[in-house]
Amino acid sequence: MYALVEILGKQYKAEKGKTIKIDKLGKNQGEKIEFDTILMVNDSGKVNVGTPYLKGARVKATVGDQVKGKKVVIYKYKKRKSYRRKRGFRGQYTNITVDDIIAAGT
Question: pLDDT band for position 57 (50/70/90)?
């Protein structure tokens, strides 16, 4: 069983027991959270799709640690103008572990 869940404007595939790396949440490690913006649930071949969300469907998860992503280098350059800019960026993420998927009907 898996569900497509929308978290902070992005879509993620949630499976029970799996860990997902999402954009940073303002939650502490070990907190229980619940998402109700479920787009689709696949329960062993039986697919429920929401319009846009499924009513009554929820994903329960536990907040893990806060991590930083790999460094992304942003380099700007304009030829013959002596213009060069180099910046680095590391995205901040939160690991969450999916505890349960509750699939209600539409």
Answer: very high
Which tens digits make up the pLDDT trace of 77-93? 999 999 999 999 999 99
Number of domains present in the structure of the chain: 1
- The CB density around residue 57, as the number of other CB atoms within 10 Å, is 23
What mean pLDDT is predicted for residues 29-55? 93
pTM for this entry: 0.82
Instruction: Dump the DSSP string for 20-86.
Output: EEEEPPS--TT-EEEE--EEEEEETTEEEE-SSS-TT-EEEEEEEEEEEEEEEEEEEEETTTTEEEE
- Structural domain range at position 18: 2-102
Closest CA to 38 of 8, 1, 11: 11
